[in-house]
Amino acid sequence: MRVFIPAFLVAAVSLAWVAPASASVTVVDDVKRTITLPAPARRIVSVAPHVTEMLFAAGAGSQVVGVTEFSDFPPEAKRIPSVGNGVTLDLERILALKPDLVVGWNNGNAALQLAKLESLGVPVYKSEPYDYAAIALSMERLAHLAGTDMMGKKAADTFRHRLGQLQETYQKRRKVRVFYQIWRTPLMTLNGAHMVSAALRTCGGENVFAGLSQLAPTVSIEAVIKADPEAIIASSGEQDDVLAAWRRFPGMAAVKRGNLLLIDGELLNRSGPRILDGTEALCKQLDAVRKKS
């Protein structure tokens, strides 16, 4: 991919990064790379919704000057200029914002564009939190890069405390076997390494396809019927009934007991601080399933 970037923009961005070496800040990102800034970031571009949520939670919201179009929380994020949709980024617009830090998600086409930004000298923090501990740690690391350490530590400590309470309340309750549907055609789910499986474990749930090797594998209807989960869960937000097709199989435990459930995907599927809201909602749903058995 060739992207034309005016020379004056590159020069302008380079000048924005000049700062006293004594004020430098250093962290290790989620792919184990060391990121050093000459001074705490004052102009940050977020290229993933979960990153935007973490930056605001860590006290750096006022320093965010660019986001992707699906960054809709907190409400203030909707007023920040968009730099793309997360899959395709507008590099010229990003450079025009003169960021001294870009926080990105290392996926697909965006990964190539993040590499292009790095080749131009833009510091890039890669965010890929795959468990609760990484979310809390990410808020602390991003806060350090933004110079908001105290707020980041407070957000991380609050997150860890609430997680502990959820684990203590639900984790040891009777296991509920769950099929978590993320897509209908083809039929797709998530394996045991995904954050959703961590949420299920926190709630005393068990992902029936946790053992598959791919993070988001395709499975057959026959495989789901054979696994016979006690509950089938999908994300809400679509116009039609995403679980309607399962009612053709009344012999399945989930169908027979009325356990075709919806969960707010923005809460549970984003690896940001609100995932605990999604986890708590999931825990309450699985408790309702237990009462039907």
Record keyword descriptors for this entry:
11 helices, alpha/beta, 4-stranded parallel beta sheet, ABC_transptr_periplasmic_BD, ABC_Transporter_SBP, Cobalamin-binding protein, single chain, Vit_B12_bind_prot, Rossmann fold, 293 residues
Structure in words:
The radius of gyration is 21 Å and the shape is elongated. The strands form 3 sheets. Strands 4-3-5-6 form a 4-stranded parallel β-sheet, sandwiched between helices. It is an alpha/beta fold and 293 residues long. The chain folds into 2 domains: 7-157, 3-Layer(aba) Sandwich (Rossmann fold); 170-292, Nitrogenase molybdenum iron protein domain (Rossmann fold, 3-Layer(aba) Sandwich), CATH 3.40.50.1980. It has helices spanning 7-16, 49-57, 91-96, 108-119, 132-146, 149-170, 195-202, 221-227, 253-256, 265-268, 275-292, and strands spanning 25-28, 34-37, 44-46, 64-66, 101-104, 124-126, 176-181, 205-207, 231-235, 260-263.
Summarize the model shown.
This protein is α/β, with parallel strands linked by helices and about 290 residues long.
**CATH-assigned fold name of the largest domain:** Rossmann fold
Uncertain segments are 7-22
Q: Quote the distance from N terminus to C terminus.
A: 55 Å
What's the rounded overall pLDDT mean? 90
| CATH architecture classification name of the largest domain | 3-Layer(aba) Sandwich
Could you tell me the radius of gyration in angstroms? 21 Å
Structural class: alpha/beta
Q: What is the helix tally? A: 11
Strand runs, count: 10
Strand order, largest beta sheet: 4-3-5-6
Quaternary structure state of the chains depicted: single chain
> How helical, in percent, are the residues?
25-40%
Domain module tally: 2
Major beta sheet summary:
4 strands, parallel
CATH level 1 class label of the largest domain: Alpha Beta
